[in-house]
Amino acid sequence: MLSRVWSGTVVGIEGILVGVEVDVAGGLPKTIIVGLPDAAVQESRERVKAAIKNSGFAFPVRQITVNLSPADLRKEGPIFDLPIALGILAASEQVESTHLSDYLFLGEVSLDGSLRGVAGVLPMAVMAAKLGLGGVVVPKENVQEAAVVENVRVYGFNHLLEVAQFLQNPSQFPAAIANRGEEEIETHLDLADVKGQYPARRALEIAAAGGHNLLFVGPPGAGKTMLARRLPSILPPLSFPEALEVSQIYSVAGLLKGKRGLITKRPFRSPHHSASGVALVGGGSLPKPGEISLSHHGVLFLDELTEFKRSVLEFLRQPLEDGFVTISRQRQTVSFPARFTLIASTNPCPCGYYGDSLKECTCSPRQRQQYWAKLSGPLLDRIDLQVVVRRLKPEEMLQLHTGENSHLVRERVIAARERAKIRFQDDPISCNAQMQSHHLRQFCPLDDQCRKLVDGAIRQLGLSARAFDRILKVARTIADLDASPSLQPHHLAEAIQYRFLDRLPY
Ligand SMILES: Nc1ncnc2c1ncn2[C@@H]1O[C@H](COP(=O)(O)OP(=O)(O)O)[C@@H](O)[C@H]1O
Ligand SMILES: [Mg+2]
Ligand SMILES: [Zn+2]
After folding, report:
1. Which of 26, 352, 360, 485 has the greatest number of C-beta atoms within 10 Å?
2. Is residue 192 within 6 Å of ligand 1 at its C-beta?
3. Which atom, in ligand 1's list, is nearest to the CA of 219?
């Protein structure tokens, strides 16, 4: 007897349909699985065999051939346990197979027949909805992430036996209902906690409004980390399509298992400086998204930038420019979205105290120069806003009143983004930081007064063409916050202020 069961795999964050064919025929009793990598085949075969026996079914003492197609696609092992088990049970007439081909089956089975969650269920549910399949059957652990997809019924079960019962009469079973993202972790980090620091707060607001990358430079204890962690509190909400895209990345990374469904808050990731290149940009033999993709539509915070390995930081250059990362492996090339706002912090010099009010810097000018030479270059060139954070004076620290709260700032950010969105109606970009040269020509024309100001700055600071483009983008965001249709000299002047690295005093 031959049976066919639908399953799936992911390439990048796209779900791909996989057909699982099972043939049970005479001959020597053995199980052959084709279309999977060797190690995964071996493990899957053993798990499925034990699960079938321990669920009270008979494991056919015949030759079993399992074929996973398309053959040339790299496939992850455990996902196919459930469809392989069902295929064997259907081909040996131990489960009802009338409705078998209406559903997509995903899941790992344990030796006792219970089902275990797998990674990538959300993109596969999206694919099943697109293909118009009757439904998706997944382990209970994965049910919430799949249920957020519209136009497809999702069923979650704990055991192989429950799936067999379901196949008897699927219409008796209610589909899962999406519980739309209540289980979000509330952060409670608010700008109201921050005293003083007006330039840094202003820079955070501009970064949020235009999606600009931001660097804080200051001595230890000045409040750089505290400020950076409050960026998410002023970012606009995620739209549904954005939330779905972010959630698919988390699903593929296996981070949605047993949790909420949709991720509805902008991600904030702060990898440790010991993070490897793979952890940061993604990779592995079956490529998984890294921190830059887990920050998609949100914030990637690199605290103490100088502590990161330079070779690791180099990996960020291309994604920062393109908004996605491409990972090449022997048999396949995948790409993951990676459009994030980068926020980084660093000390002003090796000892940390250059320009500080508290302590004297003990570095030589040459040491400071080398420090910045090591840091700067292509990565820092992609950071639009570079801001010095000074230590608060004791009297500022003691003052009782704090700054504006995040809610108020966020309102202004949302209004500014709305203005930008109207401008980009016909473009695939969503914020000022993403503007290309032709957008700059179109949206950032300079009048004579502005031109004069910029000319002076270019001459004085020796700005590169790229730096000039960055200034225009930031000025455009400042103008949006100001509800000004045109760029004014004071918008440009403020934007030039944020080129700290072009004005290095040493
Ligand atoms: N502007 C500020 N308002 C209130 N507290 C502050 C401020 N700056 C620093 N602090 C306090 O000092 C601590 C250290 O700041 P932190 O952000 O870790 O400094 P840095 O990252 O620059 O070394 C903070 O956790 C906070 O308690
Ligand atoms: Mg810090
Ligand atoms: Zn120093």
Report:
1. 352
2. no
3. 22
Name the closest ligand to CA 354: 3
Tens of pLDDT, residues 118-137: 999 999 999 999 999 989 99
Cβ–ligand 1 contact at 219 (below 6 Å):
no
CB 47, CB 111: distance < 8 Å: yes
Strand partners, 31: 64
Encode 325-359 in three state secondary structure: EEEECCCCEEEEECCCEEEEEECCCCCCCCCCCCC
Angle between helices 198-210 and 465-481 (to 10 degrees): 90
Return the pLDDT at 132. Answer: 93
pLDDT of residue 181: 54
Return all residues near 189 (Cβ < 8 A) that are at least 6 apart. Answer: 229, 230, 232, 233
Regions of the chain where pLDDT drops below 50: 183
Sign, CA torsion 232/235/239/242: negative
**Residue nearest (by alpha carbon) to ligand 1 atom 6:** 223
For residues 192 and 227, give the distance between their C-alpha atoms in angstroms, rounded to a whole number.
11
Could you give all domains of the chain from N- to C-terminal order, each with its CATH number? 2-172 (3.30.230.10), 191-427 (3.40.50.300)
Q: Is 347 in the pocket of ligand 1 (CB under 6 A)?
A: no
pLDDT at residue number 504: 63
Ligand 1 center to 190 CA (angstroms)? 13
For a mutational test of ligand 1's pocket, the pick from 195, 204, 224, 226, i.e. the residue with the most ligand atoms closer than 8 A to its C-beta, is 226
Say how far apart CA 296 and CA 253 lie, in whole Å: 13
* C-beta atoms surrounding 302 within 10 Å: 27
Query: CA–CA separation, 65 vs 63, rounded Å?
Result: 7
Ligand 1 pocket, 226 CB below 6 A?
yes
CA of 300 to the centre of ligand 3 (A): 27
User: Is the four-CA dihedral 476, 480, 486, 489 of positive or negative sign?
Assistant: negative
The Cα–Cα gap between 284 and 296 comes to: 19
User: pLDDT tens digits for 220-249?
Assistant: 999 999 999 999 999 999 988 999 999 999
Tell me if 221 CB under 6 Å of ligand 1. yes
- Ligand 1 atom closest to residue 216's alpha carbon, by position in its atom list: 22
pLDDT at 183: 47
